[in-house]
Design brief:
heterodimer, A: alpha/beta, Rossmann fold, seven-stranded mixed beta sheet, five-stranded parallel beta sheet, 43% helix, 16% strand, elongated, B: ABC transporter involved in vitamin B12 uptake, BtuC, two-stranded antiparallel ribbon, 16 helices
């Protein structure tokens, strides 16, 4: 009890007050140092015809958010929305997420839904990081809120053929002629068109003999593979989904056709678990070029192992990887912006200069249109029932195997 | 006496109908952007569903390939606007004309050789798939890479049909009002009676002097032109067109759910049905995402369809009308309900 006669403020009380005042004064500064809570909306085709890649993206987003919380200390809440693989739902999903208070969006895998979602993002001035969508128009239609990590299809194909050129010019007895077996859907046709232009531009020392398109609903590719074999080609360039990649290899075995090189620019098959489950040892040797994680990246092993322990039956593939990286791009922007306000995150995204955390890519920087200028592909080769990075040289796990071991000798 | 009352709906019913649309219009000014976007898609699918409902509910012709007409409308608007900078109004008119011609040709070919019923339905699927494949390989219309509208900025433009989400809400609401009015008027017109007679018994109506061959071509052509308008508006709202998404089987199936649940051939059935099924679909999808069950909406959708077909085989709107009639005189709305489709 304080004596009425004693001093009203003694030295101890003064010290306590001073400390208290200092803490109170510093509180806003301390608060500003921690990144603010941010709500991220993820728009993916989790159901419908694109459910397989859509759900892989959801896994990448969720793991990416956990990683970002630990790495950047960002209090990140992810809200998922499903486009049901329908373009018109992109806008509904984006509006719903913005309505729920999301400060930034990630999505939407297919270009139609992405454009639809971007209209809502544009109207609400909420930035959107496009983790995957390859149509040129995503960044060429004048949207100001778009930041695309993924390269346009033509860039992927050009880089892929540059890698293929490097391979065929460095081996003994390179292939002399190539045949292109490709899907006749959006992805297959646009890739085949870009491939034709890039092949001429890069002057590949392999003669392009024939293009053989096939329907994505085809149940049998025996005629197409027979045509490819009859063309006299010793290299098979394919643009496929997983199922048809499997069918093509099975037909090659059946028809005793042993191309020296099987290469798929931006194709599915080699990067997918189903390819190995279906083909076993016959999968080995096939190559593809894809956006993929950098196996020599500082955090890659930890992230991939963590993914594996979280999702035991799944692989960290390009879909999961790009989604994961998109979350890191957002987290980096939030930390630099020191704000969860959409306009400030937008400004920070424009100034992004990020060394990729998981994926193989140059520094992530967005040009005036919102396109990542550092995006790059890797070359994968199936080896011992896994996709292994064999190019570019700086990140290769193994040396590329060429020519392929004939199927009957495996 | 009965016919006269059919032709002139009573004032109360018209006022009730206009009041419902006035409420929807007012909601357009206050709802949040998410609901605006959702209702815009509801209205567009209602409008396209109305075209399908006229063809089956009044004309008795089953189409499972209505995406053909939707796609023609969408591509007409996209090509004329993106390639030539023309107003989408031109695209809508051209799309209507093309869809009407394609519909008439398809119907003529089919009915000329007595292809009817389920075989005609199969023919519509084949035609839609054929068109999808042709558009997939046609470079001029963007082939598989599709066509994209430029990002909209600046004030809304009625002439260029470009604007923000609320703008499209009102455009699509106006389209539905037009669709409801057109359906109601057709139902009460000579054409409506002829089509319903043809639907209920084609041979009998022909014996009574109805030129069924001509009228079947007319109803398919009319429905196709109507669906093309919806397709054109849908393309503008989603900002892009791809053969797979705008001409695929998915669209053909999505179109028919609302009218089946709401009530075939009725003026309000497609609106009621789509107002229930589409938001329910999105709600179930959101719940599924929250609990990590993607595709939950498909399960919910299936259950609603089973329940609707089982419990209310004529649709929700006729059930509402019947209930209302048992309470009060509900003459005009009563007349709007569909007589059971016998075929």
């Amino acid at each position: 009890m304080t004596s009425l006669k004693g001093p009203l403020i003694n030295r101890r009380a003064a010290m306590k007050g001073a400390v208290g005042l200092a803490v109170a004064t510093m509180a806003p500064w301390v608060r500003a140092a921690a990144p603010p809570p941010v709500k991220v909306g993820a728009i993916m085709p989790s159901s419908g015809i694109l459910a397989f890649p859509g759900q892989a993206c959801v896994r990448g987003i969720d793991l990416g958010a956990k990683f970002a919380r630990e790495r950047y200390g960002v209090d990140m809440t992810v809200v998922h929305a499903d486009t049901q693989s329908k373009p018109e739902n992109g806008r509904i999903a984006a509006d719903s997420l913005i309505q729920q208070g999301c400060n930034v969006l990630i999505g939407a895998w297919d270009s139609g839904a992405t454009i639809s979602a971007l209209q809502a993002a544009e109207a609400a001035k909420v930035p959107m990081v496009v983790h995957i969508a390859s149509a040129n128009q995503v960044t060429s239609q004048g949207f100001t809120q778009v930041f695309r990590f993924y390269p346009p299809a033509a860039t992927i194909v050009r880089q892929s053929l540059a890698e293929m050129r490097a391979l065929v010019t460095s081996v003994n007895d390179p292939p002399k002629g190539a045949v292109v077996l490709h899907l006749s859907n959006t992805m297959g046709t646009s890739t085949a068109t870009s491939l034709d232009a890039a092949w001429k531009e890069l002057d590949l020392p392999v003669k392009l003999l024939e293009y053989i398109p096939y329907d994505e609903k085809a149940r049998d590719l025996s005629v197409e593979v027979a045509k490819a074999k009859a063309s006299g080609a010793d290299a098979l360039v394919s643009v496929t989904r997983v199922n048809d990649a499997i069918m093509i290899i099975r037909e090659c075995i059946k028809q005793a056709w042993n191309p020296k090189l099987i290469f798929s620019p931006n194709g599915n098959g080699v990067p997918d678990k189903a390819f190995y489950d279906a083909l076993g040892k016959y999968a080995d040797g096939a190559m593809s070029s894809n956006l993929w994680y950098n196996p020599k990246g500082a955090d890659a092993r930890t992230i991939v192992d963590r993914f594996q322990s979280t999702y035991a039956n799944e692989w960290m593939d390009a879909n999961s990887g790009c989604a994961f990286e998109a979350v890191q791009i957002v987290a980096d922007a939030v930390v630099r912006a020191k704000s969860a306000v959409s306009s400030e995150i937008h400004a920070a995204l424009k100034a992004t200069d990020l060394k990729p955390i998981l994926m193989y890519s140059g520094p992530i920087r967005f040009d005036a249109t919102g396109q990542n200028t550092g995006a790059a592909v890797t070359v994968l080769q199936a080896k011992e029932s896994k996709p292994r990075v064999v190019g570019p040289d700086g990140i290769a796990e193994y040396k590329a195997q060429y020519p392929l071991v004939p199927f009957e000798k495996r | 006496m009965q016919k006269k009352r059919d032709a002139l709906p009573d004032r109360g019913a018209v006022i009730g109908c206009l009041a419902a649309f006035a409420v929807l219009a007012m909601l357009g000014g206050v709802l949040n952007p998410h609901l605006i976007s959702l209702l815009t898609i509801v209205f567009l699918f209602t409008f396209i569903g109305q075209s399908w409902s006229i063809m089956l509910g009044l004309g008795g012709q089953l189409s499972i390939g209505h995406a053909l007409f939707v796609g023609i409308g969408a591509y007409s608007v996209a090509v004329l606007n993106i390639r030539y900078g023309l107003s989408p109004w031109f695209g809508l008119v051209v799309g209507m004309a093309l869809a009407a011609i394609v519909g008439a040709t398809l119907a003529w070919l089919s009915f000329r050789f007595e292809v009817r019923g389920i075989y005609f339905a199969l023919l519509t699927i084949a035609a839609a798939e054929f068109a999808r494949v042709v558009f997939s390989g046609w470079e001029f219309v963007g082939a598989m890479e599709g066509l994209f509208f430029p990002a909209h900025s600046g004030p809304n433009s009625f002439w260029m049909l470009r604007g923000d989400a609320r703008f499209y809400y009102f455009v699509s609401l106006a389209a539905v009002l037009l669709g409801v009015s057109a359906t109601a008027l057709i139902r009460q017109s000579f054409l409506g009676y002829v089509w319903r007679a043809m639907r209920d018994d084609e041979d009998a109506s022909r014996a009574l002097g109805v030129r069924t061959f001509l009228h079947k071509i007319l109803v398919v052509s009319f429905s196709g032109a109507w669906a093309a308008i919806g397709g054109g508006l849908l393309a503008l709202v989603q900002g892009s067109v791809f053969p797979d998404s705008i001409m695929g089987m998915g669209i053909s199936v999505d179109i028919l759910v609302g009218p089946i649940v709401g009530g075939l051939g009725t003026a309000f059935g497609p609106l009621i049905g789509t107002l229930i099924t589409l938001p329910l679909d999105h709600l179930a999808s959101a719940i599924g995402n929250k609990f990590g069950i993607p595709g939950l909406n498909n399960v919910g959708y299936g259950l609603v369809l089973i329940a609707a077909v089982w419990l209310l085989p004529d649709g929700i709107w006729p059930a509402i009308v019947n209930s209302a009639k048992s309470i009060t005189r509900f003459s005009w709305f009563g007349n709007l309900q569909m007589e059971q489709v016998k075929k």
